[in-house]
Specification:
single chain, about 750 residues, alpha+beta, 5 domains, six-stranded antiparallel beta sheet, five-stranded antiparallel beta sheet, about 40% helix, extended
Length: about 750
């Protein structure tokens, strides 16, 4: 039931009415806002928005008034000069003439892509008025200004974090530190950045304090403000703060907060416009992962940042094997000889020396230690001196220089991609020569395009064996070296060209797959790369097999002392063919056997194998017998099946290991220990069927109340059977069971009615 209250009662009971209560509150808010258009304060407008940024005739008071009237989450306004027409079109001077720019002018665009002379963003956040602008001139990089009321409340807000290590500084009335840097403060936790600023001395920029901001009075209100035109020299001295985070360092403008999310997006757009107006090295991966990786602004505005030496320094200095990494990138004294000169003129020999230090730890320098190097690739007159690799070095250097000249807004990794490919090839050479030291150099040249698309696997000199079993050995190092030696010897039995064919096959498969995931894109190589996962799994299987064998050896040694000896380490046999899938499955079988106990399985259904032909299976089928000699008119093939001349051989596995071998042969999971355990407990039967002397069908049978039922039949790779195949298998196994029964001494044939 509902009651419609009289208007007098509705007004009287408004505090109880949820809807009208909100409506009345909104009316009061709008009335108060109209009465106080500058409730956020009227800042020194010509200090906040200088006349060289916006003409004096632009109504600044109206801008402040408009921002103040907006909701909390929309207290900002984007401006430009000249103003952009409401309905699009080009920006023009107030006299209607089109804008003209010099060739050297920076490209400044609005969010809609219209070129202007100034792009501004004015906003209010946490008691602070701020204006940031982007000019088309190259006299300075960008500008900003901020203003706040000189009140006790703001003194507590901006100076509340007292640095007790600073003495003799001025303080505001509440005792907070008025000289502490709180505005635009650089990252205090970056030791390398801090060290650079300390080296600059008095020139270094450390941010602004309360007292650094200039006082000014607007009406009866005291304000403090700061207006800054950021030049390249200021940035060189450390003024590289990301202004899009906000002015007050301890309260960044975050995207996750409701009141600042919209403002944060506006500041990011303005920041992107700033970056696009400057020479800039793009962050690698920005195309795929967005601007969260694009966090460096001023990385290409100085001449020394546009050299090949600078790019190589940034990409490779810290990757040298002998580099001793400190906290937060701090450069330690022992790294001084490894520091690269950004103005260095690179040649083939210096590039070769760098690649050497990137791939070798112990020798300090290629030419200093070459007489002690036994590495086939790096030794004196080694592979690196082969014409093929010398040519590759020349190409890498020349191509990197060409890329630098055409880099535009590309990343530094894009420039050094040819060098990275040279490093990649050297890694491949070292990987292959470790196992096949007699590999002809021509193979690398012939398979180069495939090698460049496939990542180098984990080197053979490592053991991927984490189960801790080798820790039981008294001589862990010797055992590990023996494992590595045996692994090399085993894979070394395979022809090296076969391995190159593995790489080629994987590369071709990756191209056929079509879809190139962003996760597969190697930014340092500027190429989509794939992994040799099957080969890596194969090597890991070998590690596991060897680890199990040496564990068994430990047990053997212990047993020999007590008189209970076990088998010694056995040689690992090779697969029937050196094909990657066959090699993987072969080692997987050996690994499974080494991890699982071999035990016998019952043969209650088929004590011995039973053979059945198609003719046997359909001997009692009247339709087959009456039409077996007929041929299809069109094809001339038998009317019944392609299996008409085939022979089945049914048997049960003798051991769990035999069942595992079968599972790998037909590529299904019947070899898992769960099946063997269920067979031994007589939960069901597993019957294996050879077709024409080849492993083919896996049959699961269950016995229920004297009735034997076919639970499932699996072809190779768990392929589903056709109706003809299923009928053939079922009829054949019925014949096999009948023959087994007839061989039983207690068999009594059924009497016919």
């Amino acid at each position: 039931m509902e009651f419609q209250l009289p208007s007098v009662l509705q007004k009287k009971l408004t505090p109880y009415d949820e809807v009208r209560r909100k409506q009345e509150a909104e009316k009061k808010r709008l009335i108060n806002k109209a009465k106080k258009p500058f409730h956020l304060g009227l800042p020194p407008i010509f200090k906040l928005i200088p006349t060289d940024v916006l003409p004096k005739n632009r109504d600044r008071v109206e801008i402040i008034k408009q921002i103040s009237s907006n909701e909390l989450s929309y207290r900002y306004q984007e401006l430009c000069h000249p103003p952009v027409p409401t309905y699009g079109g080009e920006a023009r001077h107030t006299n209607g003439k089109p804008l003209t720019f010099a060739k050297t002018d920076r490209l400044v665009h609005t969010t809609s892509g219209i070129r202007v002379q100034r792009r501004l963003l004015v906003y209010h956040f946490e008691g602070m008025w701020t204006c940031v602008w982007l000019p088309h001139t190259n006299k300075y990089v960008y500008g900003y200004s901020f203003a706040f009321r000189d009140t006790l409340a703001n003194g507590r807000r901006y100076c509340s974090f007292i640095d007790h290590h600073d003495y003799g500084v001025k303080t505001v009335s509440d005792g907070s530190n008025a000289d502490k840097k709180v505005f635009l403060v650089p990252n205090q936790y970056n030791d390398e950045d801090k060290k650079k600023r300390q080296a600059l001395g008095d020139k270094a920029f450390w941010g602004y304090s309360w007292n650094d901001c200039l006082p000014v009075q607007v009406g009866k209100t005291n304000w403090r403000y700061m207006t800054v035109y950021v030049t390249k020299e200021m940035i060189r001295n450390g003024h590289d703060y990301d202004i899009s985070k906000g002015v007050y360092t301890d309260r960044e403008i975050e995207s996750w907060h409701n009141k600042s999310s919209n403002l944060c997006n506006q500041l990011r757009d303005w920041r992107d416009a700033l970056k696009n107006s400057l020479p800039n090295w793009k962050s690698a991966g920005n195309d795929y992962y967005g601007r969260r990786y694009d966090n460096i602004m001023f990385n290409r505005i100085f001449p020394e940042q546009n050299t090949l030496g600078y790019v190589i320094k940034k990409n490779y200095e810290l990757k040298q094997k002998n580099w001793n990494h400190g906290y937060s990138g701090e450069v330690k004294d022992e790294n001084n000889y490894l520091i690269l000169d950004p103005m260095k003129k690179w040649d083939v020999d210096s590039l070769k020396s760098l690649i050497f230090r990137l791939t070798n730890k112990e020798p300090l320098d290629l030419y200093e230690r070459r007489h002690n190097i036994g590495d086939t690739f790096w030794k004196e007159n080694g592979w690196i001196e082969q014409p093929y690799f010398r040519k590759m070095l020349h190409f890498a250097l020349k191509h990197a220089e060409d890329r630098l000249a055409a880099s535009g807004d590309q990343s530094m990794e894009w420039v050094t991609a040819p060098i990275e490919r040279m490093i990649h090839m050297s890694d491949w050479v070292r990987y292959i020569l470790y196992v096949w030291p007699d590999t002809p150099v021509d193979y690398f040249q012939s398979y180069e395009k495939y090698l460049l698309k496939v990542n180098v696997p984990v080197e053979m000199g490592k053991i991927n064996y984490y189960r801790g079993r080798l820790n039981e050995s008294n001589n862990y190092i010797e055992t590990k070296m023996n494992m590595i030696r045996r692994k090399k010897e085993y894979f070394g039995r395979m022809p090296v060209k076969t391995f190159f064919e593995f790489v080629k096959k994987r590369s071709d498969e990756y191209d056929i797959e079509g879809h190139k995931s962003s996760y597969d894109f190697n930014h340092r190589m500027d190429e989509h790369m794939c992994e040799m996962r099957e080969w890596t799994d194969t090597v890991n299987l070998m590690d596991d097999i060897l680890g199990n064998q040496y564990k068994d050896q430990i047990n053997y040694d212990a047993g020999a002392a007590t008189g209970h000896e076990e088998d010694k380490i056995q040689e690992i046999d090779r697969p029937r063919r050196w094909r990657l899938t066959e090699l993987h499955d072969h080692l997987m079988g050996i690994q499974w056997k080494s991890n699982h106990e071999d035990f016998g399985l019952p043969q209650d259904l088929f004590p011995k194998p039973v053979k059945v032909t198609w003719q046997d299976a359909y001997a009692n089928n009247d339709l087959y017998q009456s039409t077996r000699d007929l041929r299809e008119v069109n094809s001339g093939t038998p009317m019944w099946s392609e299996y008409e001349n085939s022979t089945f051989s049914f048997f049960q596995p003798l051991t769990s290991h035999q069942l595992a071998d079968w599972g790998r042969a037909v590529r299904n999971c019947v070899g898992n220990s769960g099946y063997a355990s269920a067979i031994s407990k007589k939960r069901y039967f597993i019957v294996l069927a050879m077709l024409d002397h080849k492993p083919r069908y896996t049959i699961q049978l269950k016995l229920s109340d004297g009735t034997l039922m076919v639970d499932q039949i699996a072809d190779i790779g768990n392929r589903r059977l056709s109706d003809i195949e299923k009928d053939f298998v079922q009829k054949s196994i019925a014949v096999a069971l009948q023959r087994t029964a007839e061989e039983d001494p207690n068999y009594q044939p059924k009497e016919e009615n």
